[in-house]
Amino acid sequence: MAKIMGIKGFILDLDNTLYDENQYLYNVFLDFWTKYFFTQENFEDICTQTLSDETRLHSKDIFRTFLELTPLGYAQNYHDELFSIYASIQCKLSLYEDAQEFLDFLKQQDYQIAILTNGPIQAQKNKINNLKITGIPIFYAREDGIEYEKPHPKAFLKVLNHFRLSPKDCCMIGDNPYTDIEGADKARILPILLKRGYAKNVQNHIQCDTISNFKVLKDLIK
């Protein structure tokens, strides 16, 4: 991982890179559940099944998957309600410990840092607020349209323009081989795959360095 030594700017994914997105989804499901059911009977089992790596990997609509496992079943109004909660819920979230330490280290060393995230803008902003992330520029890839989300190079180029750095001076760290790694590679940014979350089971076709946590990276650039 010698190339990392010359890096001046770090672009970081959000969900399952800096924190466990299942924390957030669990709170969304719990908020919905308590509105319709008097007890939490079966809730934990349904959540465990819905949020398992296997289900997350193959589900094209996690809200629909959850609803189909509940006694209510799927209905569009329930789905809309879940999405509304997803975009606005106030809950306690925390960064992965190694991610927090890495961000603190980068700030102390005056590296340029940005977070680049896909997904509905209101929901992603709400996650940032719940995580209490401050002092780091956040780029919401969907601002230019869903078609320009990662892996589209335009999402990455916006961050490069903000940094005023060339692609060779930056790296992208993310958990998703398709959106994060393939996208960074298209933009000629050094990709680093963080193997955690359900996407750790997604096959990566781009040759790049792989890490299991941020401590490995921090130790390399000290």
Return the CATH class of the largest domain.
Alpha Beta
Overall pLDDT score: 95
Q: How many strands, which pairing sense, and closed or not: the largest β-sheet?
A: 6 strands, parallel
Give me the CATH architecture of the largest domain, please. Answer: 3-Layer(aba) Sandwich
Strand order of the largest sheet: 3-2-1-4-5-6
- The topology string of helices and strands comes to EHHHHHHEHEHEHEEH
Q: Whole-Å distance between the termini?
A: 13 Å
CATH topology description of the largest domain: Rossmann fold
The gyration radius over C-alpha positions equals: 18 Å
- Count the beta strands: 6
- Compute the number of structural domains: 2
Q: Which term fits the overall shape?
A: elongated
Number of helices: 10
According to CATH, the homologous superfamily of the largest domain is HAD superfamily/HAD-like
Which structural class do you get from the secondary structure elements? alpha/beta
Record the SSE blueprint.
Elements lengths: L8 E4 L8 H16 L6 H8 L2 H6 L3 H8 L6 H13 L8 H12 L3 E6 L3 H11 L6 E3 L12 H11 L6 E5 L2 H10 L3 E5 L14 E3 L2 H8 L1
Pfam family, one: HAD_2
Protein name: HAD family hydrolase
Organism: Helicobacter anseris
Describe this structure in words.
- The protein is an alpha/beta fold.
- It has two domains: 2-19 and 94-221, Rossmann fold; 21-88.
- It contains ten helices and six strands; from the N terminus they run βααααααβαβαβαββα.
- The protein has a six-stranded parallel β-sheet, sandwiched between helices.
- It is elongated.
- It starts with 8 loop residues before the first strand and ends with a helix.
- 31% of the residues are buried.
